[in-house]
Amino acid sequence: MRKRVSAMLSLVVALLGTSPAFADIGDHRPSGADPTVWRNYVDGYREEPDWSPRGTIVADTGFRAHPDGFSFFNTGVPDQFNNAMFGSPLSGPKNLDAEAMRSLMGRKVCAEKRETGPCTLTLAAQQWMDSANESMAGGHCFGFASTAAELFGKMLTPGQFQPGAKSTYDLALRTPISRKIARNMATQYAMDVLDYRTSPRQTVNLLKRSLTAGSVPYTLFILWDGGGHALTPYAVFDRGDGKYDIGVYDNNYPDADRAIRVDTTANTYEYLVMTNPNGSPDIADDVIGLVPTSVIADRQKCPFCPGANETTVQLKPVKSQVPIKTRLTDLDGNRIKGATVKKPTNPWQPGQRWEFPTYVVPKKQDFIVTIDARRSKVPVRTNLLAVTGQFAVGTRGATIPARGAGAVGLVPERGLIVYGANKGSDLGSLTFVDSRPTLQVEVRASTQSSGGPFLLGQLNERSKKVVLFTPDGRRGSARATAALLYVGADGVPVEVRARAAAVLPRNARLIVDYASWGPKDRSGVEAYVKRKGKRTPVDVTFTKVGL
């Protein structure tokens, strides 16, 4: 039995990386932890280099990894370490749900438009939430770090999430706390974390001024070639000669007090961060920054709600042994002025997940996102979602062949989207979401033809139509599934679905007209094939969906 446990632990450590230091870990075994696995974790940790804080304390909140950090590990999928330690599901914790979304962005995400009570996500909100949850598959570090800060500052209480819990360390993994962690993790997809970038010297000076007893005012983030990570800064230690240690709680190391080492004279920092599943930790020494805890706790701007003045582009992370590169340009291949790149705080984990960045471009700017998988020996599968304040468009189930590439182009002013990949790829489907004040319409559609490996579609948001066509007007076929969501007179959300499919002659298009679709006419969808000005009706079937 002992050999099996040791072998399992070795696998877990190989997957999650190794851990540092004797001096910076206690031995506060959580009540639900497996004693043998916990002991092996502690002993292994103490064999590694010491990255505990040293020096004279010059600023201190009183926060420490125990009892103010979580007793379980930063959660990803699969979640081997927490499974070995606590018997938690390998599928990981619960991510965002409707209530977490409402906490994040307010009542606009709910079809009911209520601050309390039932919340049925609008179709656009559902799309964004699914994309955000997919992006959290590699970990929840930003959520862990900021939630621990909120709990310590009494912005939250442990008892809110688990009856009888007196400290953050008391909380078990299988509690509603996972929703809060996910909610805070998702804030980085709604804000630009790099807006809070500082220099190492500025970071030390700001923390020296702001870290006072009983409050952790910031979440600290670092970015480097291996990815990114977020930590909870709690104290500053003066080591002399312009050198300082920033005491941090690292959610990859429960029950451990660790340090970021800063040289203010050289204006540099170093931190031993665990990212590599083969057991080789990284030294992070590039970007550093501080996001106010209050900003994370506050409601975030809604990128898909009316009034949004930019287009946000999200890609689902993929499993890969090598980095999958992405590139954002205009339709002519040029850099886009005013575009920003949001890098995730989740690190790249070879063989597990490659975290794509989030792009933000000016509202009316056309663009192409290129996905380069030419280093990959296996196909990669991803989703792309582009959201504005009026509509959302994207692809689902896009598969890029091994050694291949794919590209998604969008012209927001025309609602035109094109997805293409190397021949033989599985193109998946296009998604269109039309956001209106009182109802939402989503259309998922695909086309097939001999005109090349492309999907082409257009959302005419003004006339309320989705147009599907083939490359060069080739013969082919098209199919569409539409969903209508609205709140009935009784206050209960209603969803109706419509389906249509058609053969496309040369230079023909399938048009789905939903202009009359709504509470007064649940069958108000018209579909037809248009060719040379002639319309050929297409049968539409309707289904009411229980919510």
Keywords:
35% strand; alpha+beta; 18% helix; ten-stranded antiparallel beta sheet
Overall description:
With 547 residues, the protein is α+β, with helices and mostly antiparallel strands. The protein has two domains: 2-93 and 140-297, no CATH class; 310-545, no CATH class. The protein is built from ten helices and 28 strands. The strands form three sheets. The protein has a ten-stranded antiparallel beta sheet with strand order 12-13-10-15-16-19-20-23-24-28, covered by helices on one side. Strands 1, 2, 3, 4, 5, 6, 7, 8 and 9 form a nine-stranded antiparallel beta sheet that branches. α1 crosses α2 (35-46). The chain starts with a helix and ends with a strand.
The low-confidence runs, each spanning 5 or more residues with pLDDT under 50, are 1-23
Integer tally of domains: 2
The main sheet comes to: 10 strands, antiparallel
What is the CA–CA distance across the termini? 48 Å
User: What topology, given as strand order, has the largest sheet?
Assistant: 12-13-10-15-16-19-20-23-24-28
Please indicate the percent range of residues in DSSP E strands (runs of 2 or more). 25-35%
Helix content: 10-25%
Classify the secondary structure makeup into a structural class.
alpha+beta
The backbone outline, from C-alpha atoms, is: elongated
Q: Rg from C-alpha positions?
A: 25 Å
Tally of DSSP helical segments: 10
Strands, total number: 28
Helices and strands, with pairings:
Elements: H1 2-16, H2 35-46, E1 56-60, H3 65-68, H4 80-86, H5 98-105, H6 123-135, H7 141-152, H8 177-190, E2 197-198, H9 200-210, E3 218-224, E4 227-240, E5 243-249, E6 257-263, E7 268-273, E8 282-284, E9 287-292, H10 293-297, E10 310-315, E11 325-329, E12 340-342, E13 358-362, E14 367-373, E15 380-387, E16 391-400, E17 404-411, E18 416-421, E19 429-435, E20 439-449, E21 454-460, E22 465-469, E23 476-487, E24 493-504, E25 509-513, E26 526-531, E27 534-538, E28 541-545
